[in-house]
Amino acid sequence: MAKIKYTKNELKAQRDALTRFTRYLPTLQLKKQQLQMELRRLEAQIAEKRGEEEKARTELSSWIKLFSEPFDFKPYLQVENIERSSGNIAGVNIPIFGSITFKDEWPDLFATPAWVDSGIDMLQKLIRLRVERQIIEEQHRLLSDELRTTSQRVNLFEKVKIPECKENIRMIRIFMGDQQTAAVARSKIAKNKSVEKVRSA
Predict the structure, then answer these.
(1) Is the Cα dihedral 88, 93, 94, 99 positive or negative?
(2) The domain 23-161: what is its CATH number?
């Protein structure tokens, strides 16, 4: 606890600080709740994307035997662009998935087996799902970091700053009250002495 001065100015400073902390605390608590709700929503989205990926992989497993036939998929799975925009949740800038485009190359339909087109579509879908999930996970990470910071501030205000200010105000009041009582006592003593002087003269 920082050392305080037992003065009227310090009392005013402590009262101002207490007002500031108590005014700001509900905003922080609201932000904390908003972040917690948003994180729960993102966790559900991540689970949903994982489920979609799993479903796509299951569908892909039926193609695996066909994939054993030699065919180079790489040229048809090259990502050309991932479009991301920026959003804001509770004052945190987060990336938002827009779209993904692959290089517009398709194999010669007459020179490749019939299943290749569907195979490319399926693999592109898997890549798209993975990119979407990674961006949602990035949102989750950014909001988790912010929630940690906000929770620390809420705890600091609730458990340290506000009780500290209240205690400081109480101590300064006691000290000032004692000073006032002592001043009254001194003035009475001085008055009694001056009355006695007058009487004895």
Answers:
(1) positive
(2) 1.10.287.3240
